[in-house]
Model the fold of this input.
Amino acid sequence: MPEPTTQNALPKLADVSLFDPATLIDPYAAYQTLRDLEPVHFVQASNVHVVTRYDLVREAIKDTKTFSSKYDSFLGAAQEMMFNAAPKAVQDQLLAINAQMELAPPTMLTLDEPEHTQYRSLVAELFTASRIKGAEATVQSVIDRTIASFAGQTSVDFMDAFAGPVPLIVIAERLGIPAEDRDFFELAATEAAGALRLSPLTPEQMLHRAQVALDLQRLLIRIVEDRRRNPQEDMISVLANSKLAGENRYLTHGECISVLNQFLVAGHETTTSTFGWGTLLLCRNPEVQEQIRGDAKRIRTFVEEALRLEAPVQGLPRLVTQDTELGGYPLVAGSMIMLRYGAANRDERQFAEPDELQIDRPKAGSQLAFGAGVHFCIGAPLARQELNLGFATLLEHISSIELDTSAPAPEAEPSFILRNLPKLQVKLAWR
Done:
């Protein structure tokens, strides 16, 4: 966790550049400057208004009529910029790959009511409290097997050993990915999450990601077709055999792919990131390891604090549908705003001593890492289950977790959307 900022250390408003790699790696001083001086801040280079204060972010989330989730154009523009920067020969290859892909229309993330609920309701039954509770033994088994795979090792890359595998295995089982396809699925899910980071790519990386995306579509379509013939107890079976409310038809392949792609990212990338950042918090606050070990209530608060301090989704856009204002700042119809959950979660107006980890913080669950309102993350109960069980079990088996200082210092991957921790080398003392 970055050290708490002081007023003297904060950059001036004119010096804030949210898209600089250094700021993307450690954005918190910039966030505080914007919250204090210009909580709705226009970034001319990207033509987006960045919202950083908790109350304003929450206000915009709740007002779905004025601040629409139909922001495909924002993501499309970023992808178009990367495409245009590629050599002509690479562009031709990308177009050839794209021509073979199913069109994946907007479904949950980038739709408003009532269309949003049409799709969300299809899978909502899989994330009820009773369903999540019923899956606890399965999740615990995945956690136990994963810890057993590196038990006794005194130095590991925690992201590779635990933070990455656990959410990937859980979401693969929940979706219903066949065992023989798991290795490719793990690669494809990681690439799908990488696409949302909007990080620069080499031409070779662009081609690799496009080919993996095509191969993933083909895998998912094959499984959807199989589940229509042979339904099972998994999410793909539900999607394959449910009919869209009000239209009395099955989902198209493209609609199934669109929904499933969202679960690939939401179902593993965000949980992986929080496992990583949470473990880094434990390394930087070693006394907390003993304070929360065996204490389910404190572990729950610790998980919420990890989500608050290092929101795995730092922000998402919204499209302004009508002339309005936000915090007295005028916005015209057609404008794009960027709601910065990572900034709102460290707003001292909402959270006392916001840069500090507090394992007894009251109302820790009011953090916005999972969003709020109609777009509140549908998979949040599963993520919380994995994180609570995961940290509890790790601390049950491991007496001490500390940074391995012989390895490079861990830092975030520069990204405007996701907050990813690629590497975390730790030293472990086993109980």
Observations:
- The beta strands are 40-43, 48-51, 67-68, 155-157, 315-320, 324-326, 329-331, 336-340, 398-403, 425-430.
- The two ends are 26 Å apart (CA to CA).
